[in-house]
Amino acid sequence: MATALPPKxxxxxxxxxxxxKGNIPLSIEKRPKGKKVTVLSNVQGSAKSLLSAxxxxxxxxxxxxxxxxxxxxxxxxxxxxxxxVGAALEQLxxxxxxxxxxxxxxxxxxxxx
Length: 113
Hints:
Number of strands: 6
Number of helices: 2
Largest sheet: 6 strands, mixed
Structural class: alpha+beta
Distance between the termini: 74 Å
Radius of gyration: 17 Å
């Protein structure tokens, strides 16, 4: 019986796997009393160290939840932090299978005569 080996983790100790379309697995959930939470899924490795790094970089609180598979973790960060969490993950270099945003061709400036 062959067992799947866990993926090799980067030096930071954690890894975030991209979705099927190559995007970062981030979403926003609404909680009671109108609170918003940013949810980061598909975290492997030391999720606790990723949560502490995100908390200190962003200045927000958060929590961990283990997914049913037992291998992946879900990190919840307080507030609507999608752009900030995505930028922090790229800065930490722990993304796998995520399309890089390349420089989009700039539109030519319209000139008025």
